[in-house]
Amino acid sequence: MNSRRFYRLPPEGSRFYYFTVTVKETDLWIAVSRSCRSREQLPELVEQLVWRQRQDLERYLKQNPYFAVSLEPCLVDSSAPPIAFAMARAGNLAGVGPMAAVAGAFAEIVGLVLLEHAPEVLVENGGDLFVKVNEPVSVSIYAGQSPLSGKLGLLIRPEQTPLGICTSSGTVGPSFSKGQADAAVVLSPSVPLADAAATALGNLVQGPGDLEAAVGQAKNIAGVTGAVLICGDRMAAWGEVSLLPLKP
Questions:
Q1: pLDDT (tens digit per residue) in 95-104
Q2: Please, which residues have CB within 8 angstroms of residue 71's CB and are 6 or more apart in sequence?
Q3: pLDDT per residue as tens digits for the range 7-42
Q4: The domain containing residue 207 runs over which residues?
Q5: Total domains present in the chain
Q6: Cβ atoms within 10 A of the Cβ of 115, count?
Q7: What distance in Å separates the CA atoms of residue 136 and residue 15, rounded to the nearest whole number?
């Protein structure tokens, strides 16, 4: 999909330079420091990187089809590419299948490479974020039809980054979820883990009454540093989360 998504619109006077890269299902929105001198070459660099990573992963999935469909933790063999190892590890820690971490894995791979060229980098892939900043930024929480959607944001401080901020939803978007959370947002230094954990926590929410118990499970996932869950007009949060109201 090449159309600009509403949540990707850059703010006026931003310190970032923005571009998008789409390779098959991988649809990236990227921001780098405007001071980056090589910024005009970065879209091609990212496109080639994503193609290589997708080829490696697709080749492995063809040889190991169970990896692509499992909703449970699974092992990888020695032939697995690094991206598959990262996805499997994240899924195993969160208790879900490895594909629950695929968007976060791509966001992190691209983000780490871009840090070789720019001091500040944001990579968004289907609602999953890699963030490295030198000044605070706020990240809006989109929660579909919830009255809290777009009303709250996360304040991200430089000392928290590099950081993964990933969202799963049972009511928004095409991603599979067993739950009904409008938004399950997870923070972790590992973006694949944040992605997998967001799926795991979102699976636990069938209604507002499940929020407290579900967010409590975030404490049991090693490597997760914070979580925010929204269902309807209710919310629960835990960990290194700084919420702030957003102007309409």
A1: 999 999 999 9
A2: 96, 97
A3: 555 554 578 999 999 999 999 999 999 888 888 999
A4: 14-245
A5: 1
A6: 15
A7: 12
